[in-house]
Write a structure and sequence with these properties.
Bound molecules: pyridoxal-5'-phosphate
Shape: elongated
Largest sheet: 8 strands, mixed
Structural class: alpha/beta
Number of helices: 12
Number of strands: 19
């Protein structure tokens, strides 16, 4: 078999792009319309009066905070959460009026940055409370903070004895304007898990030791547990980005991301040739192989080799051979010539095979699939809010 790339009669359904897109081995298209539709869908099921925040840690789960934050703000979101103050500083510049919470707490030595950028630390220890209170006294102005109570996760947050100390000595909070009391669910992705109700009850109990403030308990999965879990503010992340907290239980959000790998080369091989490292994949007959410019360095898990398929205009193209650092190989035998040319794009994740499918196949969760999408992947944003812009 030889390759005779016949010129396409009509434009191919996949595009090569130009500029930075043309220079990239893979594209990630983020549908901001689907993102805001997911935000509104979650809002619709909230308990009356509850607000919907959004979690944008790890560069908005890999999708790109710079586009995600303004889109959510445009949809009415006013309360954001990131993990680190560095992320908070970036976010502050994008959403000047919104509340920006830093979940990892008050990092020692970074207090002045929280003040300068109006970041709201989620105070996790008595030590953090003490430091924030002393900064507030120094600044002679009340400083906003959320307080995180641990109700069973045992990672971050005040434990019961800390709460007791705080209850006995309210002066510890001098200068701190407590905007929100929060906790985090460990097992919300399993609606039948007894831990959910146990944490909710511990949360109710712990709140009584603290100043009256709005309450927040639910992540994405917590929102789906029902209105008892919503309180004043919910903090979804993964559901906004179109993935399920548990990839074996899809939750039917709008799909937000589409990942495409670019064809670099096409070759014909025949038995007894092999493809890729370790000579792992042995072809059984005449086979056309396309090599794409994406690999495990871009977040495509190495174990996906031989397990998943890509798609070219409705044609399934199985991954064959091992996933390399920068490359994968797909079997494109039977795909019409006009669709196969260097520069053409192969769908790897999106409509046919979604984030949860990829997560299941790679033995992980959608969170990890999204958050590890590499920096080399060129991000493209579909923004219905700017659809008419030139
Ligand atoms: C990451 C995180 C969330 C969001 O969780 P999802 O499962 O992505 O909705 C909410 N709260 C805290 C404390 C988190 O760390």
């Amino acid at each position: 078999m030889t390759i005779s790339p016949t010129p396409a009669a009509e434009p191919p359904e996949t595009v090569a792009g130009s500029g930075a897109a043309a220079r990239a081995g893979a594209l990630l298209t983020v549908d901001l319309g689907a993102l805001t539709a997911n935000y509104r869908a979650l809002k619709r099921i909230l308990a009356p009066g509850a607000h919907c925040g959004a979690v944008l840690k790890a560069d908005a789960y890999g999708l790109g905070m710079a586009a995600v934050a303004p889109a959510l703000a445009g949809a009415g979101c006013r309360r954001f959460f990131v993990a680190l103050p560095e992320e908070g500083i970036r976010l502050r510049a994008l959403v000047p009026k919104a509340e920006v919470h830093v979940l990892d707490g008050l990092l020692p030595g970074a207090e002045a940055d929280y003040v300068a950028h109006r970041l709201v630390p989620v105070l996790n220890t008595l030590g953090e409370i003490e430091r924030w209170s002393s900064w507030a006294r120094k600044a002679s102005q009340p400083l906003n903070a959320a307080i995180h109570i641990d109700t069973g996760m045992n990672r971050l947050g005040l434990n019961p004895s800390d709460l007791e100390h705080l209850g006995q000595d309210g002066a510890r909070l001098t200068g701190i304007a407590v905007t929100c009391v929060m906790s985090h669910l460990a097992c919300a992705d399993d609606p039948d898990h007894e831990m959910n109700e146990r944490q909710r009850l511990r949360f109710e109990e712990a709140r009584t030791a603290l100043p009256t403030a709005s309450a927040s308990l639910a992540n994405s999965a917590g929102v789906l547990l029902g209105q008892d879990y919503h309180y004043d503010l919910v903090r979804p992340g993964v559901a906004l980005y179109g993935a399920s907290p548990d990839p074996t239980r899809p939750i039917g959000m709008h799909k937000v991301v589409r990942l495409q790998g670019r064809i670099l080369q096409i070759r014909d091989v025949d038995a007894p040739e092999t493809v890729g490292y370790g000579a792992d994949h042995r072809v059984e007959g005449p086979t056309r192989v396309a090599t794409l410019g994406i690999g495990y360095a871009d977040g495509l898990a190495r174990r996906l080799g031989g397990l998943m398929s890509g798609w070219i205009a409705g044609h399934e193209v199985p991954l064959i051979g091992r996933v390399s650092m920068d490359l994968i190989t797909v079997d494109v035998t039977g795909v019409p010539d006009r669709l196969l040319h260097p520069g053409a794009l192969v769908d790897l994740m999106g409509e046919r095979t979604d984030v949860d499918d990829v997560a299941r196949l790679s033995g992980t969760i959608g969170y990890e699939v999204l958050a590890t999408l590499g920096k080399r992947i060129h991000r493209v944003y579909i923004d219905p809010a700017n659809a008419d812009a030139p």
